[in-house]
Amino acid sequence: MKDIENPIRVLVGLATCGISAGAKPVMKTLADEAEKRNMKNVQVVQTGCVGMCTYEPIVEVYVPGKEKVTYIHVDTEKAKKIFEEHILNGNVVDEYTIGAEQPQEEKKEDEHTSLMDVQFYRKQKRVALRNCGIINPEDIHEYIAKDGYQALGKALTEMTSEQVISLMKESGLRGRGGAGFPTGMKWSFAAPNKADQKYIICNADEGDPGAFMDRSVLEGDPHAVLEAMAIAGYAIGATKGFIYVRAEYPVAVQRLHIAIDQARELGLLGKNIFNSGFDFDIETRLGAGAFVCGEETALMQSIEGKRGMSKVKPPFPANKGLWGKPTVINNVETLANIPQIVFHGPQWFKSMGTEKSSGTKVFALGGKITNTGLVEVPMGTTLKEVIYDIGGGCPNGKAFKAVQTGGPSGGCLTKDHLDIPIDYENLTAAGSMMGSGGMIVMDEDNCMVDIARFFLEFTVDESCGKCTPCRIGTKRMLKILEKITQGKGTMEDLEELETLATSVKDGSLCGLGQTAPNPVLSTLRYFKDEYLAHIVDKKCPAKHCKALLTYEINKDKCTGCTLCARKCPVNAIEGTVKNPHAISQELCIKCGNCYSVCRFGAVEKN
To answer: Does pTM top 0.85 for this prediction?
Structure first.
């Protein structure tokens, strides 16, 4: 191995998910092992999130002339063994590879040593995420080696701005931030407007609970966003760009600053890019975490130093946006597609997806799902394929109950919707929405009334309070949902809830308020029986809502091990060793500790 001419490349996932799982010490261990042996042919390189967050920390080893090997759940001790066995002696450490955790029926000889071999990736198509987990995001030369900035060069030296806009229209790319508005059309609205200054804004204010698509792109492939913003600037005649990113994303912010500095140093941002006479530069602006600032008018208010609150449209940003100037706002995933569309052509992009929804879509797959992580699939892929073929279904043998798409503004869909092809129109017709790409899976233990309450609680907290329907209507809806989950609801409350949901949806000023009732409306539509059970029967069918639960011990199953009594924080469980125990309903606080620790199934929810 010492005489290998080409370097051995060792990639360590150092996105936020990898760092939180302990990837930094792993990378240091591998680098130290190479340094102490003076092995200059071993390159230990950081990279972004490869998508399968459930397996972090992930280490991938590229030996010239051999297949890539993916190691998962790597710690410092495993890292040392991987270095000694694999990198020094060429022997793959099979028990640490991705293949070791695959179902037995899927294993075949010499397969599953690479992450891309496993079921999670087989139906994926990586466009926006193409470089994530592959290149070093802090090295512009690695991005350039993967055709980076070729699209910008092509646009500036071979195309007019009108041709760039026409190409984007032809591609059928729609905004990936939620509404799905055609990107080329948005650009065409801003291009003809005359002004001494125009702006391009990247909306990286990713606030949906459980969503991390934009963060992963910024951490793993920041130059794709910079290149796309420059292309957009050329198309509409803008010379200045802003990336509005959440301050809670420190890794993404750091890598953006490094990428911007590197692009300026190579003349890919700044004056006279590619000797074309086109000037364009980018700055970052940090958001303070307000969900409403994901809405474009509130976002611009925040950049201007004002309180982030939505404004009435029209005028639209393309006519009068940031500081009153024509402005185009695209989200991170939308921008990440643009260099590839310009480089490969619109027909290449249209070859993926459906007639009305071209290309791919990135989803943050989470909740009650076996394989959590980032998923990028062609539009038209069914929910069943994402949840079962890629996500592996619900863990622990639990039955699938619902999936929510579109974050807190989306709706909950049932098993009857699993065969729906994913695109903007189909999800909206079913009572949900594409949103930015959150996909939360729920199993039989989730109470759908409580799910609606949870998401509405989030939107109540995040409402800017400017318009009355959102400020007061959502709060009133939340009070009703809290009442129902406590077993105090009435049929009149249910009628009022439906009326309020419709009024808030129709009367709110911006997208936050207009979509806030979606979780309520969709659960009322598909899970009304659960609402009725809470109101009429005073029962929670999922056995989740504390106020409607009692914990009891089945004497026939209780062995008297005393574990439940020892774990009870309020001493509500009585009984002696090897004799059946009992729970005092007066003292029980319904924390569920006894239920969780009992190994014999003796503690029952009723």
So the answer is: yes
